[in-house]
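Researcher: Please predict.
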Amino acid sequence: MAEQQLMETATVDRQALDEVVTFTSELIRIDTTNRGGGDCQERPAAEYAAAKLAEAGLNPTILERTPGRGNVVARIEGTDPTAEALLVHGHLDVVPAEAADWSVHPFSGEVRDGVVWGRGAVDMKNMDAMILATVRQWARVGFRPRRDIVIAFTADEEASAEDGSGFLADRHADLFEGCTEGISESGAFTFHDGRGGQLYPIAAGERGTGWLKLTARGRAGHGSKVNRANAVSRLASAVARIGDHEWPLRLTPTVRAALAEMATVYGIEADVDAADFDADALLTALGPAADLVAPTVRNSSNPTMLSAGYKINVIPGEATAHIDGRYLPGTEDEFKATLDALTGPDVDWEYHHREVALQAPVDSPTFARMRAAVEEFAPEGHVVPYCMSGGTDAKQFSRLGITGYGFAPLKLPEGFDYQALFHGVDERVPVEALHFGVRVLDRFLRTA
């Protein structure tokens, strides 16, 4: 009974609020740039996180598939040994940043005017810091959650995840025994709708990853002669068809739920289950709020890289391109068939990297508890489910039967473009947003 009262009445202390800012700043200062070539070194950040967990009385393990690519896993034992465990994970690597383009050095971790600056401030060393601050407060007050909570800090999320969550799922599944659900990045942040309202989207799905390599082969020859088997021309035609393709509307259960809740929030009559439901019309009526949903009502295929030739007067015998493809749950077969048709007979394609699409229930007790935690600290906001247009480590952990949600809470001021700062210049996070995040995360995990 005393423990239940502690769960219901506890508040985040001043030390936790200070630590979440300090940890965010200090993690940013550890350069864990992942360029995708295998040269990233997450080990120093892993050692940092492991030390903070050890100070909280846990027994973290650092694991590596490749030397220097550190991952950290620790388990907090719950009070109910029959309860299913919860995975709470964040990645330690970040995308590159060109210092000359930034207002501050991207790895300074500078705290200025109530804002923490640097690469990883929103993606996602802020959430890593929230996790550490929460766990450490629990140790100070002697709190134990109901269910086991497995903490994981991973390498390589910004590339293939082969050295991170993929390695952990494939080689160390025992560390995640009992985990049925997980939370990580890209959810429960303030989305200002342009009408004075605030939405808090919680991710309950992800589009699948279909990164493609296209190869066109033809007849090599002199650049001055007619060549109807020109590999570059064949490739260019296929790339243009793919880039111009209009993918058909495909509404998943998560997206339908998002549209239904958003229509209710804005007083728009819409029967999302009706045979004649016009999703594009509803998106138009939603105005700026539609930006949360529009990227996930269709598959996508964006050309991103081209490579061919070595001399201007030589027609090469081969040309290649890369496509960033994303597909919704249940549409991979359609995605593949469409690419077969768009590439045509003269261009071959293969997956450069592939990961599954995900979908999580929005009527689960866990989603309800996440909603309640956000609404407690942001009663003026509206929680809605949404599907991520990209992907996270939840894809790899799904191999273990773990259902993933995006829940990294932040309360952001109007005009603060959270989405644009992912992989963007001058990435930063307000101190007050971190304070909100650790309060909401603490409340959810206490009730989970």
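Model: Residues 57 and 139 are 7 Å apart (CA to CA).
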